[in-house]
Specification:
The complex is a heterodimer. By secondary structure, chain A is α/β, with parallel strands linked by helices. Chain A folds into three domains: 3-176, no CATH class; 189-328 and 501-549, Response regulator (Rossmann fold, 3-Layer(aba) Sandwich); 329-460 and 558-579, Rossmann fold. Helices cover 40% and strands 14% of the residues of chain A. In chain A, the strands form five sheets. In chain A, strands 14-13-15-16-17-19-20-18 form an eight-stranded mixed sheet. Chain A has a five-stranded parallel sheet with strand order 9-8-10-11-12, sandwiched between helices. In chain A, α4 (43-56) crosses α8 and α9 (202-227) runs parallel beside α21 (496-518). Chain B has six helices and eight strands, in the order αβββαβαβαβαββα. In chain B, 39% of the residues lie in helices and 19% in strands. The chains are: A alpha/beta, B alpha/beta.
Chain lengths: 580, 191
């Protein structure tokens, strides 16, 4: 009812706009926003409130902004926030043929003369070339779309009904938005770092570093060519290869931040590295431990971290500053929950049991299953957590199975759990389905006992495709070449080192695209804004890497597979890459 | 040349100019065609996680309106969705007189949870379903409506309105205002 009232108020739009115009006129006479805004607010409070208007569409009163799009479509500001089109950095976006211009203070208060290099403008007129805004003309544009002397903003830009005091707060925020180039960027260099923790094998570390080193060498030699006094051809080549003049004049450097000792001590080490060298972003990185301390460091300092190699990412819907390849082990647990949800057996009322090894892997798999299972509207399964070093005994499993008669038994541990299930099967008392993780089993996946194969389902988070298309822009869907079964010899990536070597090119590819698309706007928030606009990418490991504003796990799928019988078994797909 | 002739010529030229410009001013900003589509028999999943036979949903005896969106879309989808929300608002308690269907073009990310939250943001009422599915099935749907895009970032605004009277589709390419959308809806009997 409250919502309906809110909409009814829009019927007074013409009056509101006239009032707005009168207020605006008064404003021009009265002076700048700063002088008229509430003096009770500190600068920090004003910025916080401005950020809330920009990102959430909520006014300082807590009420949603009111707005119109397409002339007469009333919209609540909460579903049409500034950030949704102009993005977190305020540098704007190009999506679906619509160009959204920058709205950060630095750009607003200078004339806008956009060049449309590489820009798709199929369906809409080119954005206006306008003079520099003043506080008053900016307020007018936000309210009515009118831009002096004679321009009008595209009608997909909402016209917001904001009073003077709130407008002053919003404008203050826009002035602060992406106002100074982020740390780590000088006129001649962009500095990055990669975080490597103790315990990583040298060959695994090198598999990640070699791709980055290769990029740095190529990039910096092009910059060197650009800076050479000889001939214009090398300058032209460098500028074209690097996508922008800003990249052609800047080298890049990637420092190694080596973290020693226990994860509890990492934060202090990271702070010290950062104090000595405030880098623009973290690239890649590798750890066998939980990535959380580094994730939290990125969140707290607003430092983007692109594609760290970890099986233990932080899984969050809201955190912003780390872009992962996938959710790691968690994703396999998630896939099992989704698959089980599609099976009739799960709805039949028989219980689900998960047995969890007391390990990081077990916990991550279990968390993925539990949270997804709950979101799908199911009661929690019966969970048994084994103590560290404890094995799954035949007697315990037999008693449990006799008592519960489970529809599905989920084993979040290694192949040492399987003999107990095998005994159960030999007794003729097997559960309906058994689920295991391929990442936990490793190469033992191919040694799954024959008796178990018929009813054992394996979470397999990797691609079935043997080939990677050369271009992501082709009309052929990425998964179309995926076969339905996979033999051991068809698995081109056999160990963790090869896996990392398969991931590193995607890190470099996305980094290069981001640096080009930033076009000299070297603000950290813009780094992930432009990555959010990148088209889907192919990967030798995953069926598809996809991006979008706020999407932080690029690979979103995981197959459920089974192993065929016989001495040369094959993995057979039993689900789609993404299970709904 | 006499002065009156000069003035007449000027007035005539001005008139011709105005008349020439008029259609451009009056022209709608979207393209509209009438189409027939063969609907694929695929099973998609809605925001509640329920399976939906797409062909049956499309061949409803109610008018059907379809668009293509994704949960993290920045520019076009919010406008399309606001049009749906306003139509439901206008229909009030009769919101189920028309079947609104948003089809995800980012099926990897658009899970039932994401779609449910999206619809909540637009205060969707019963009668508006957001559908996801396998990429292969979503591709079939896009192909069927001559709306295939290989990548979500290159999408475009498309609204498809099916009349339950003759099963024909009004295909609208571009973004409509509220009154334009209402006018198009009236043509298939949505009042």
């Amino acid at each position: 009812m409250k919502g309906a009232d809110r909409y009814r108020r829009f019927r007074g739009l013409p009056i509101a706009l006239m009032c707005g115009a009168v207020f605006s006129l008064f404003f021009v006479v009265a002076g700048s926003f700063g002088e008229t805004a509430s003096p009770a607010l500190s600068d920090q409070e004003r910025l916080h409130l401005g950020e809330r208007i920009y990102r959430e569409g909520l006014l300082p009163s807590g009420e949603p902004m009111q707005a119109y799009v397409k002339g007469d479509l009333p919209v609540p500001g909460t579903s049409f926030t500034c950030v949704s089109c102009h993005l977190r950095s305020g540098l704007g976006s190009v999506e679906g043929g619509v160009y959204t211009p920058p709205t950060n203070g630095v750009k607003l208060y200078q004339p806008h003369q956009p060049l449309f290099k590489n820009m798709e403008q199929k369906y809409f007129p080119l954005p206006l070339r306008r003079p520099a805004y003043t506080d008053a003309s900016l307020a007018e544009a936000i309210r009515s779309g009118d831009v002096p002397p004679r321009y009008k903003l595209n009608d997909v830009m909402p016209r917001y009904l904001i009073d003077d005091a709130d407008m002053a707060i919003l404008v203050s925020y826009l002035k602060s938005l992406s106002s100074t180039v982020s740390p780590g960027v000088s006129a001649t260099n962009m500095s990055f770092a990669t975080v490597i923790t103790d315990g990583v094998k040298p060959e695994e570390r090198d598999a990640m570093l070699s791709a980055l080193d290769n990029l740095v060498n190529i990039k910096n030699s092009l910059v060197s060519a650009f800076n050479t006094p000889r001939g214009s051809r090398s300058r032209l080549m460098a500028e074209n290869m690097l996508g922008s003049r800003e990249m052609a004049v800047r080298t890049i450097s990637v420092s190694r931040w080596l973290l020693k000792g226990a994860p509890e001590t990492w934060r202090g080490q990271l702070e010290e590295y950062y104090r000595k060298e405030p880098v623009f972003a973290l690239l890649g990185g590798i750890s066998n431990e939980d990535w959380r301390p580094i994730h939290q460091f990125s969140e707290d300092h607003h430092i983007p971290c692109l594609f760290p190699i970890t099986d233990f990412p932080v899984v969050s819907d809201t955190d912003w500053y780390t872009q992962y390849f996938s959710k790691g082990y968690y994703q396999e647990g998630e896939a099992v929950a989704r698959y089980l949800n599609t099976r009739d057996e799960a709805a039949a009322g028989r219980p689900i049991i998960q047995i969890v090894q007391a390990s990081r892997e077990g916990q991550a798999l279990s968390a993925g299953f539990l949270e997804t299972w709950r979101d799908l509207g199911h009661q929690p399964p019966l969970t048994v957590t084994l103590k560290a070093g404890e094995s799954l005994s035949q007697d315990f499993l037999r008693q449990l199975s006799n008592r519960e008669n489970p529809a599905a038994l989920i084993l979040w541990g290694g192949s040492d759990m399987l003999p107990a299930v095998k005994t159960l099967a030999e007794d003729g008392n097997r559960p309906g389905m058994v689920f295991v993780s391929s990442s936990c089993l490793g190469k033992d996946i191919w040694l799954l006992p024959e008796q178990l194969r018929e009813f054992t389902y394996i979470a397999y988070p990797f691609s079935f495709s043997k080939y990677v298309a050369a271009s992501s822009m082709g009309s052929k869907p990425a998964q179309s070449d995926a076969p339905t079964s996979l033999r051991l010899k068809d698995v081109t990536i056999q160990d963790r080192t090869q896996r990392i070597a398969g991931l590193a090119p995607s890190l470099v590819q996305v980094l290069v695209m981001a640096l080009m698309d930033m076009r000299g706007n070297y603000y950290r928030d813009n780094f992930f804004d432009v990555i959010g606009m990148i088209p889907d990418q192919n990967s030798p490991l995953y069926e598809r890497l996809s991006f979008g504003p706020g999407q932080r796990y690029a690979s979103k799928g995981c197959y459920i597979v089974q192993l065929t019988k016989g001495p040369e078994p094959e993995l057979v797909r039993k689900s789609n890459w993404v299970i709904h | 040349m006499p002065r009156t002739t000069l003035i007449s010529s000027f007035v005539l030229s001005a008139l011709v100019l105005v008349l020439t410009l008029q259609p451009a001013v009056a022209e709608t900003k979207y393209q509209r065609t009438i189409e027939n589509y063969a609907i694929p028999d695929v099973v998609l999943v809605n925001q509640n996680g329920a399976k939906v036979r797409f062909r049956e949903l499309m061949q409803s005896n109610r008018p059907v309106i379809v668009d293509f969106i994704f949960g993290t879309c920045t520019t076009i989808c919010p406008i399309l969705s606001v049009s749906f929300a306003n139509l439901q608002q206008k229909l009030g308690t009769d919101s189920q007189k028309v079947q609104l269907v948003s089809i995800s073009i980012d099926p990897e990310n658009d899970t039932p949870k994401v779609m449910k939250e999206y619809l909540k943001r637009y205060r969707a009422r019963p009668g508006w379903d957001f559908l996801t599915g396998t990429r292969a099935d979503i591709d079939k749907v896009m192909y069927a409506f001559n709306a295939y895009i290989p990548n979500k970032m290159s999408h475009y605004p498309l609204t498809l309105i099916r009349s339950s009277r003759d099963g024909k589709w009004i295909r609208i390419f571009g973004l409509m205002g509220s009154s334009e959308f209402t006018t198009e809806c009236r043509k298939v009997g949505i009042q």
